[in-house]
Design brief:
- The protein has helices at residues 17-21, 30-41, 58-61, 93-105, 128-135, 162-176, 199-210, 227-232, 244-248, 261-270, and strands spanning 12-15, 45-48, 70-72, 77-79, 85-88, 109-114, 117-120, 140-141, 152-158, 181-186, 189-193, 217-221, 235-238, 252-253.
- With 283 residues, the chain is an alpha/beta fold.
- Strands 8-7-6-9-11-10 form a six-stranded mixed beta sheet, covered by helices on one side. Strands 2-1-12-13-14 form a five-stranded parallel beta sheet.
- It is globular, with a radius of gyration of 18 Å.
- The chain starts with 11 loop residues before the first strand and ends in a 13-residue tail after the last helix.
- The relative contact order is 0.20.
Length: 283
């Protein structure tokens, strides 16, 4: 696809984390960090949003010198860089219960994030160990996921059968309707959050709170749940590892997260040829 022209004015870059900002080993590369520093030196702000819980992004705060709001759970919880909560949106108990039922009916495993708790049913289930390593805290094993339904920020369906995850996503969207937002955050995860807890809402929230017009915000991501923020921003970039469907929804496409695609996107699309941001915002 031919990319649209670079944005005339850039005041904020909002980035997804997994599959975008960090590499396949969940590591922030020096080139990615340098790209953020280059943007900031020239006046553009930088923010992150993810399906991760807020404390699962704590390792990014110092190396990226984050000072903007951090949007966890796809916009279900907004926190300051010290991880204190600004605002949160939780699922209704009815929606959480229906989400878990639908996930299990489709043969997926179910997780519930409630408050500071990550509730799972089996310690050795698929992706639990990897997720614990990624977010840097351990889950609570329980036979009763319903204990988290009254304060659930996110319910997750997990399976390595990608077709089954996609089918579950469609079923969740149909069954939950306006009660919740359901979208895949990875090929093996489908996330269920409050209906306003989606990455499109994150763009709107940051635009309002920072006083930045949406057309001065750029977004970058790789999964179907990133498309909503693509649609709300002035310029959007899909990762090379994104599906063809996701790429078709973006204004430009960069390299894969295995090839410093985030840094290359900033360098190619958001900095001038001399390495300067075409920004008019303030840091």
């Amino acid at each position: 696809m031919s990319p649209r022209p670079k944005p005339q004015r850039l005041s904020l870059l909002l980035a997804d984390v997994d599959g975008t900002l960090v590499d396949e080993n969940k590591i922030l590369t020096e080139r990615a960090a340098a790209a953020v520093r280059a943007l900031r030196r020239k006046g553009a702000r930088f923010a992150v949003t993810s399906g991760r819980p807020p404390r699962g992004m704590a390792m990014l705060i110092e190396p990226l010198a984050l000072h903007t709001v951090i949007a966890g759970f796809n916009g279900g919880v907004f926190v300051r860089p010290d991880l204190s909560i600004i605002a949160e949106k939780t699922l209704s108990r009815t929606a959480a219960e229906e989400a878990v039922r639908t996930i299990l009916d489709h043969g997926l495993d179910a997780w519930v994030y409630a408050g500071n708790d990550w509730l799972i049913r089996k310690k050795d289930a698929a992706h639990v160990a990897r997720e614990a390593w990624t977010v840097k805290f351990e889950p609570t094993v329980t036979d009763d996921l319903a204990r988290g339904f009254d304060r659930a920020a996110k319910v997750v369906g997990v399976s390595d059968d990608y077709d089954r995850v996609a089918a579950c996503e469609a079923a969740l969207q149909e069954r939950l309707g306006a009660q919740a937002s359901a979208a895949r955050s990875q090929p093996y995860y489908v996330d269920v959050t409050h209906p306003e807890a989606n990455k499109g809402f994150v763009v709107e929230y940051l635009s309002r709170e920072l006083g930045i017009p949406a057309d001065e915000i750029a977004t970058i991501g790789d999964m179907p749940n990133d498309v909503l923020m693509f649609r709300k921003s002035g310029f959007s970039i899909a990762m090379g590892n994104a599906s063809a469907e996701v790429q078709s929804q973006a204004d430009a496409v960069t390299a894969s997260y295995t090839d410093d695609g985030f840094a290359k996107a900033v360098e190619r699309y958001l900095l001038d040829d001399d390495g300067h941001s075409n920004s008019g915002g303030s840091a």
